[in-house]
Amino acid sequence: MSGRAWVYGDDVNTDLIIAGRYLHSYDPEELAKHAFEDLDATFAQEVRAGDVVVGGSNFGCGSSREQAASCLVGAGISAVVAVSFARIFFRNSINRGLPVLVCPGADTMARKGDELEVDVSSGIICNITSGKEFHANPLPDEVMHIVNAGGLVPYVQNRLLEGRP
Fold first, then answer.
1. Distances in Å between the alpha carbon of 1 and those of 10, 27, 58, 114, 165?
2. 61-75, pLDDT tens digit by residue?
3. What's the pTM value of the predicted model, to 2 decimals?
4. Is 126 helix (H, G, I), strand (E, B) or coil?
5. Partners of 85 in beta bridges
6. I need a surface site. Which of 96, 125, 133, 136 has the fewest CB within 10 A?
C-alpha cells in the first residue's frame, strides 16, 4: 500500500485524533470528517484513501476511545507508523482493522506529503520521495489475520461461520 505521509510528533493523544465533542458517533465516515481537527485543520479535507499517518513516541496516548482508530479507518488511512504506541490505541487499531507498525526512527522517516510505500506483512517502509527504507516490527500472523478481516468483529464472525471457535 502506498500513500502520502501525514506526520505528527510525540504524545499525540486520542483527543487530538478525534475530539471528545464528536464521541456521540461511532460511524467511521462521520468521525473522519473531524479527524485531527484540533491538531491539523487540513487533514479531514485533504486526506486520501491509502495515506499513512506517521508519529513519534507514545502515539494514541490518553483515553481509551475506540473512535480514535475508527476515524482513521473512516478517513481511509492505510497504516499508522510510529516510534511507539499507547497500548490501548494499538489494540483498538487492530480491533478496527487498522495496521499499526512500531518503527524505530519513524519520527525522522518522512515529511508531510512524502510518498510512502508500506508493506505491513514484512514491516518494510519505503519513502519513495527520499529513497530511504525503514524497517518496522511486522505484525504477527494471527494479528494480520484480524487486520485482513477488517477487524476483530469480522474476524470472529468469519471464524464462527466456518465452524471454528
1. 24, 24, 24, 14, 31
2. 999 899 999 999 999
3. 0.95
4. strand
5. 59
6. 133
